[in-house]
């Protein structure tokens, strides 16, 4: 009987060892897969993460988030459904509140760049509700006219708050 017990114990031990090795192998595989998934998620840009998470069933608005080839936001981001709500974005962050009126982002981008460059208040453009430059840009007592699409000055500053811009 003692011989039989001696053979049974090593058999059970081998079985336990084999199961332990299999579980260890599975644990290593799962750890590697989990690590790869986390590194992929961490390497996503803000836009790519936003794009991946946009439009869930519980979302009030379903955004059609667009990223460029480098993973940065495209300036104009809009919802999928009508009426379209849009917002302006820099490469990394939102610049304007969502609105059904925004159709352009040049002014919001110029305003953001001016603020980041710490320009004076007279060099920070004002935008209209459509996202274009206000035709009349004023600072203190001086006003000038600008192209609403580009923001380029079309009439030099004058000390006239009632200046009319075409």
**How many helical elements?**
3
How far apart the termini lie comes to 109 Å
- Strand share of the residues? 5-15%
- Unreliable stretches: 36-40
Roughly how many Å is the radius of gyration?
30 Å
Give the overall shape, derived from the CA principal axes. elongated
The secondary structure category is: alpha+beta
Number of strands: 6
H and E string: HHEEEHEEE
Fraction of residues in helices? 25-40%
The overall average pLDDT, rounded, is 84
Strand order of the largest sheet: 1-2-3
For the largest beta-sheet, the strand count, sense and barrel status come to: 3 strands, antiparallel
Characterize this entry briefly.
This protein is α+β, with helices and mostly antiparallel strands and 166 residues long. 36% of the residues lie in helices and 14% in strands. It has 3 helices and 6 strands, in the order ααβββαβββ.
Structure overview:
The chain has 166 residues and is of the alpha+beta class. It is built from 3 helices and 6 strands. It has helices at 2-42, 46-53, 106-116, and strands at residues 63-64, 76-79, 86-88, 136-139, 142-146, 153-158. The strands form 2 sheets. A 3-stranded antiparallel β-sheet has the order 1-2-3, with no helix packed on it. It has a 3-stranded antiparallel β-sheet with strand order 4-5-6, with no helix packed on it. A hairpin with a 2-residue loop joins strand 4 (136-139) and strand 5 (142-146). The chain starts with a helix and ends in an 8-residue tail after the last strand. The model is unreliable at 36-40 (pLDDT under 50).
